[in-house]
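Apologies for my clumsy wording, but could you write out the amino acids of a protein and the tokens describing how it folds?
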Amino acid sequence: MTTFLLTFAVFLLALGGMAIGVIVSDRRIRGSCGGLGNLPGMEPGDCPGVCNKPCPKRREAMRRAALRAGDAA
């Protein structure tokens, strides 16, 4: 039981530290473009939550993939 309580306390401290860090940094929490859109077999229209405006890194990857697809054809 002591191990469980100690582990629970450590998790609470970590969670509290992250919460304080977000509050102090005064920034919004935001996700990355990708997530479900990066799953194999998922097309952009398959899921309503997929990012419609990809970030620059994702746009570059999409451009390279299109170039590769054009070279293969």
